[in-house]
Amino acid sequence: MAKGTIRYWAAAKAAAGTGEEPYDAETLAEAMAAAAARHGRGGEFRRVVGRSSFLVDGDPVGARPHASVALPEDGVVEVLPPFAGG
């Protein structure tokens, strides 16, 4: 298992109730499933994260299946919800 940090931004931060937390997972899918189990809160966390985009050590995940995205040791996962604005 790799250990690193998940950073939440904007609505993801509000839904998680924290700006960051550690991960202990092999893949992005595993890390986010563990986070969802911690932050159930009536589905708000899952809803926000389900619409979010992700960076792993600054690289966009894009449309890749999260189960195929390996997480590095001491890596950083950024959870970026859709932003509104003009």
TrEMBL record:
What this protein is called in its record is MoaD/ThiS family protein
Q: Which Pfam families does the annotation name?
A: ThiS (PF02597)
Which residue windows are transmembrane per the record? none
Looking at the record's lineage, which domain of life comes first?
Bacteria
InterPro entries for this protein: Beta-grasp_dom_sf, Mopterin_synth/thiamin_S_b, ThiS/MoaD-like
Q: What is the lineage of its organism?
A: Bacteria, Bacillati, Actinomycetota, Actinomycetes, Streptosporangiales
* SUPFAM superfamilies named among the record's database cross-references: MoaD/ThiS
